[in-house]
Amino acid sequence: MLGLQVDGMGPGDAIEIGDGPANMDFRAFMRSSVPVDHLELIWNGQVLREYDFDQDRHTADFSGKIQVEGPGWLLLRAYNDEAHPEVPDYYPYATTSPIYVTASGKTLMSRTSATFFLEWIDRIQRVVSANTAYRTAEEKERILEDIARARKFYAHCLAEATME
What we know:
By secondary structure, the protein is α+β, with helices and mostly antiparallel strands. It folds into 2 domains: about 1-105, Sandwich (Immunoglobulin-like); about 110-160. It has helices at about 110-130, 135-160; strands at about 1-5, 15, 20-30, 40-45, 45-50, 60-70, 70-80, 95, 100-105. Strands 2, 4, 5, 7, 8 and 9 form a 6-stranded mixed beta sheet that branches. The longest helix is centred in the last third of the chain and has 23 residues, at about 135-160. The protein is flat, with a radius of gyration of 20 Å.
């Protein structure tokens, strides 16, 4: 289990900062049934801070100050380099949802990510449209409406992209 708070805000929340660097307080924790190799605070996909484990790699509590600049996102992730016999997956991995940071009203939007999701949504729409195994026509229509909303969202992200 992972937890993260930045300036009192948690995963899914948004923090507004101004232009230039912003100093923030963070608190993070990890509890794991298996030993963990890495616990990292991530800013826009890059390691901002890494926790130094002592003997106990099942529990971690750490806090401090960080400095970020511009729009982006923060999250906490934990993972191992190799598989563990008690975890039925390739290797133990966990992450919090992001805490979003807007800078003077600007958000981080990736052209590459928006394009990827638009193509993915188009594939889903083709499959849904061709499928005849719905309970009712209304069920299929509701699903297509959800897909249309998702497509509209990512089309907006593409049009407003702030980075490649």
